[in-house]
Amino acid sequence: LRDIQEGEKRENFTLLMHCKLFKGWPKAKIEKMANTCQRKVFETAEYIFHQGDTADILYVVVEGSVKIIKELVIVSRNRWPVGKDGHGERVTKLNKPVQLTTLNRGDYFGEVAIIKKIPRSTSALTTDRTTILCLDKAEFLHLISYGNSQFKSSDSDEIMSIESINQYIGDKAVLDTVKHLKGGPGSEAVVGSLHK
Prior knowledge:
By secondary structure, the protein is of the alpha+beta class. The protein is 34% helix and 35% strand. The chain contains five helices and nine strands. Helix 1 crosses helix 2.
C-alpha cells in the first residue's frame, strides 16, 4: 500500500510540474501540493460540480476527460391578440447545456472561481471514468499568497486571459444555440443561467 501511495505522489508531482498553472513554481511548493492533494475517481457522466456551487477545490485531470458546460435556461415568450383589448401569452422554458470545452490529462479547472471568490460559473461533467487531483481552496490560496510564492500578477493575468477566452467561446456557443430559436410576431428569446 505504501508503495502505491508513493507512486501516486510521484505521479502527482510530475503531473503538477507540467501543469501550465504552476509553470515556474519552485519544486518544493509543487512537492507540497503533490503530497497534500487528494485523488478522486468519478464514474462516466458524473458531475464533479454544478454551476452555482461554492468554489472550494482546484482540480487537475489525471486520467479521463471532463466536459465544461454552461447551463442555460432559454425563455421564449409568444404573444397574440385575443379580442379587442386582450392578448394571450405562452412562455416556454428550455434547459440547454452548452459544452464550452473538453479537458484531458494535465488540464486544470476551478481556479478562477476560487481566485475571484465567486460561485462556479459552469458545470464539470466526466465523459468517462476519470481520476482527478483535488487541491483544497485554503491550501491553494496559501501557496499562491504566502512565503516565496512564484505566483505573480502575470500568472493571475494569464488565468483571467484564459477565462476571457473561455467566456468568448461560451458566448459564441450560447449565440449559436439561441440563433436557431424562432417564434411568431411578438416573440422573444432570453438567455439566463439556471443558477442565479
